[in-house]
Design goal:
The complex is a heterodimer of chains A (about 160) and B (about 475).
Chain A: E1 8-13, H1 23-37, E2 43-48, H2 55-59, E3 64-71, E4 78-82, H3 98-109, E5 114-121, H4 133-157
Parallel strand pairs in A: 1-2, 1-3, 3-5
Antiparallel strand pairs in A: 4-5
Chain B: E1 3-8, E2 17-23, E3 29-36, H1 42-46, H2 54-57, H3 66-80, H4 91-123, H5 134-140, H6 142-163, E4 172-173, E5 176-177, H7 183-191, H8 198-218, H9 220-224, E6 233-237, E7 249-253, E8 259-264, E9 273-276, E10 285-288, H10 302-308, H11 315-327, H12 338-358, E11 377-384, E12 387-395, E13 401-407, H13 409-412, H14 414-429, H15 437-448, H16 454-458, E14 466-472, E15 477-483
Antiparallel strand pairs in B: 1-2, 1-14, 2-3, 4-5, 6-7, 7-8, 9-10, 11-12, 12-13, 14-15
Helix pairs in contact in B: 4-6, 4-12, 5-6, 8-12, 10-12, 11-12, 14-15
Classes of the chains: A alpha/beta (about 160), B alpha+beta (about 475).
Chain lengths: ~160, ~475
């Protein structure tokens, strides 16, 4: 806890060098700018290409965590789900899922932060920096939602 | 009636791979192949881009080993800006890059050993795949799991301090580096809180080696007898023969340890190495030209590096290297599972090197960049965690890239992985009527010893379910299984 506020982490992952794959990273960067402007010291952001086992140690220090990722699935602009610990391994263990990170955090550090997964719908995944217009629109919608969710969070949970 | 068994793709290996095993009517192995089935032309993509973008641009290739590509491209660009071939940088430039590289080796090897290999060792390769993971490792040996996680985190912190950030790091630039290490960064990495302590990293590296050696003592058949086959080995070595993961000359030895590539300047690699294309795989097959396509293939990676090097220049790793060499009678080890042993010795070496560098004042002051006469072609080589990584570029008068050729570690290991798959398949599948999970996993364990990054090798995004297919001799699909 930071004063009255729960410590919050927004963690975006993906490869911004592959078009819409960088949606989660860009969302975390936008959240970081907003928190800096509004001096929300209880919110941290982090980014990486993909999640890995050491992130269990990272999230152990927070009360609430939002993972943000690009989605290839046929979801609306975005989807926001509460995440439960999952022991299910991915096909590749060079990267792991957010649920796996949460489970590992619980096993290794006896901590289970309230965790959410934000999927933002993406469309193109080639070797380019530029996101598609449709993905940018989805990003904006997701950002507005996350901003409201974080702003409301202390009142309902602190 | 013969059968074709397809395991697709290989679990816990990045990207999309497929193993097909052909059995004859009597159940004997007729042929095995490791297929790579997706390709995106990264070399073409970088053509027409300015050369100075390369160290950052190539990180788009792969989220697993972006630092290795960052450094290999930077080394090639050093040549292009006239800063020499690894020896022309300022002391600060070279040492900061080395620290970044040892951080990368440390975190990548830790991930592989603790989270990919050790569950196989602890639970056995026949165990249910649902328990062969870090979660169950934590239930069985929590301390070991915590150490693995924190060692990986330490390496990531080193990368962040030297490359500037975790995504699309900008630390290495043509001719040097763009930042010093700050006093705070140095102190944090030397003796920080929350396990970020270099002495602890050295101790834990020794503990991991002790764990492996104890396991080896009790399970010699698994470690020594699994998929052994003769191979040649290739890696960079320092000019005096020492293990050097960042820079040196290119050496290859045969299965008996005889030199077959004599410490060449890697700017000339294309005079000695070529790549063969085979119709059934998008991943090429590199070979030594002088020996030829059929038998000129070689292995790269931790085991290859210990097989080509004559000594290690850090005391604790040298002691372990001597034990390793003694165990193998002073000859190269042809045992793929000894890769795990070699990887752990390299983890210890990287930790010792990081300690040396963190105590070196050159990291905190001094010139960052050097320049010379511009060149129009440059080759950058580095020993990435998985093995030798080649980046070769040409530029035009307008500074744009006109040619790029990348030979990634996993491509160098293409034929050895095929050999390993064949060895295991012959041993565990011959004459069997049913294909069990344990048998399939034995094939995968053989491949995993090379820690392949197929995403990198094929330049694909690579997120696929695991598919298992069984075909009869007429190519009819008789069984299909998926793992997600």
């Amino acid at each position: 806890m930071t004063g009255n506020h729960p410590k919050i982490l927004v963690y975006g992952y993906g490869n911004p060098g592959r078009q819409d794959d960088g949606l989660g990273v860009v969302l975390a960067e936008e959240v970081a700018r907003w928190c800096k402007d509004d001096q929300l010291v209880y919110v941290d952001t982090d980014t990486n290409y993909q999640l890995n086992v050491e992130d269990a140690a990272v999230i152990a220090g927070y009360d609430m965590v939002i993972f943000a990722d690009a989605s290839q699935e046929d979801v609306p602009a975005f989807r926001f789900d509460r995440l439960m610990p999952s022991a299910k391994t991915e096909f590749t263990m060079h990267a792991v899922s957010p649920g796996f990170i949460l489970h590992l955090c619980k096993q290794l550090f006896s901590r289970e932060p309230e965790t959410y997964l934000l999927h933002i719908r993406g469309y193109e995944w080639e070797f380019m920096n530029e996101m598609t217009e449709k993905a940018r629109a989805n990003l904006h919608e997701a950002f507005v939602y996350v901003k409201a969710f974080i702003s409301d969070f202390p009142r309902s949970n602190a | 009636m013969g059968q074709k068994i397809t395991i697709e793709p290989v679990t816990r290996v990045e990207g999309h791979g497929k193993v097909t095993i052909h059995l004859d009517n009597e159940g004997k192995i007729e042929q095995t192949r490791l297929h790579i089935v997706e390709f995106r032309g990264f070399e073409r993509f970088v053509q027409g881009r300015p050369y100075w973008e390369m160290p950052v641009l190539v990180q788009r290739l792969c989220g697993i080993c972006p630092v290795s590509h960052h450094l290999a491209a930077a080394k090639a660009m050093d040549v292009i800006v006239g800063a020499g071939t690894g020896e022309g940088l300022t002391p600060t430039g070279e040492k900061m890059r080395r620290l970044m590289h040892y951080g990368q080796i440390f975190q990548s090897h830790s991930l592989h050993f603790f989270h990919l290999a050790s569950p196989d060792l602890l639970f056995g390769i026949d165990a249910d795949p649902l328990i062969r993971n870090i979660i169950h490792l934590a239930l069985k040996n929590r301390d070991l799991a915590v150490q693995g996680v924190m060692m990986r985190k330490y390496g990531q912190e080193v990368i962040k301090a030297t490359a500037g950030k975790k995504i699309h790091g900008t630390g290495a630039i043509p001719g040097g580096i763009n930042k010093h290490l700050t006093e705070d960064e140095r102190d944090y990495l030397l003796n920080g809180d929350d396990y970020m302590d270099i002495d602890k990293m050295i101790t834990w590296s020794q503990d991991a080696l002790a764990f492996f050696k104890e396991y080896h003592k009790k399970n010699k058949a698994v470690i020594d007898g699994f998929a052994e086959f003769p191979s040649s080995y290739l890696s960079l070595v320092r000019k005096d023969g020492a293990l050097d993961l960042y820079h040196g000359v290119l050496r290859a030895v045969d299965t008996d340890g005889k030199k077959i590539l004599h410490d060449i300047d890697y700017q000339e690699y294309h005079r000695y190495i070529d790549e063969e294309v085979r119709s059934w795989s998008y991943m090429k097959f590199p070979y030594l030209k002088e020996i030829g396509k059929k038998t000129g293939w070689y292995s790269v990676g931790p085991l290859a590096r210990l097989n080509t090097a004559e000594f290690i220049d850090t005391p604790l790793a040298q002691k372990e290297f001597e034990l390793f060499k003694q165990y193998n009678g002073g000859k190269p080890s042809n045992k793929p599972m000894h890769s795990h042993w070699a990887r752990l010795i390299e983890i210890l070496h990287a930790a010792e090197k990081m300690k040396q560098l963190l105590n070196d004042a050159d990291l905190m002051e001094g010139e960052l960049v050097t320049r010379g006469t511009k060149q129009f072609e440059g080759v950058g080589l580095i020993e990435a965690p998985r093995g030798t990584l080649f980046h070769h570029y040409k530029i035009g008068e307008n500074d744009m890239i006109t040619m790029a050729n990348l030979i990634v570690s996993t491509t160098n290991n293409n034929q050895p992985m095929n050999e390993a798959v064949n060895q295991v398949a012959v041993k565990v599948m011959t004459g069997k009527k049913e294909i069990t999970e344990g048998m399939m996993n034995a094939v995968e364990v053989a491949i995993r010893a090379y820690d392949p990054c197929l995403s990198c090798a094929t330049h694909a995004l690579g997120r696929m379910p695991l598919e298992f297919e069984l075909f009869d001799a007429d190519n009819n699909l008789v069984q299909s299984k998926f793992k997600h």
